[in-house]
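pls design
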């Protein structure tokens, strides 16, 4: 981990990270994107197939859901720092298929990648952090944390991880809306927008 608070330098260093085995199969490291002056940070799980190919977070289907939700919550994406708890795409392939199927990162992989996420928190020092999904939430709030039990609450990160104490919220990952029943998607989307709006209100 380079001794710097410059996001560009951190991103460059992360390209050669071999902290866990995921780098072997992924196309590239997908570091966070956004300004160091961003007042809000959104943390997802890991890059997906399209993010792995593009080298940027939240550019695939889940990213489009997030874009729409941010718009409805009156939060400008350009003013948000977007990243993931894990910076490499973890996937499997069905026999005889080229399609890459998302696999949830292990606890070991999440912990191995956490120094990069903490470096981003130190560099940006956001006023608000939104954790999208269980993997992101557990990466900073512990393995026993349950999004369903604390969704909508204002939380606090452990002081040793974020001394500046950003207002922290946990909600679902946008990809969960795509995997859920079609008849439930409108309500699930409205709930995500509500969560983002509550987080955004902390910025004044």
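designed seq:
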């Amino acid at each position: 981990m380079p001794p710097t608070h410059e996001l560009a330098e951190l991103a460059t260093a992360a390209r050669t990270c071999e902290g866990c085995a995921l780098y072997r199969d992924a196309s590239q490291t997908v570091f966070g994107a956004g300004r160091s002056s961003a007042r809000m940070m959104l943390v997802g799980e890991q890059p997906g197939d399209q993010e792995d190919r593009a080298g940027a977070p939240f550019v695939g289907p889940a990213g489009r859901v997030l874009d729409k939700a941010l718009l409805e919550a009156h939060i400008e994406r350009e003013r948000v720092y977007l990243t993931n708890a894990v910076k490499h795409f973890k996937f499997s392939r069905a026999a005889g298929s080229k399609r890459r199927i998302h696999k949830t990162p292990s606890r070991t992989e999440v912990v191995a990648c956490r120094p990069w996420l903490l470096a981003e928190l130190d560099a940006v020092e956001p006023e608000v952090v939104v954790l999208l999904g269980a993997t992101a939430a557990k990466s900073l709030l512990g393995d026993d944390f349950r999004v369903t039990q604390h969704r909508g609450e204002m939380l606090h990160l452990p002081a040793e991880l974020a001394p500046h104490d950003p207002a922290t919220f946990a909600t679902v990952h946008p990809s969960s809306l795509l995997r859920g029943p079609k008849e439930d998607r409108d309500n699930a989307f409205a709930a995500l927008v509500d969560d983002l709006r509550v987080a955004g209100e902390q910025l004044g």
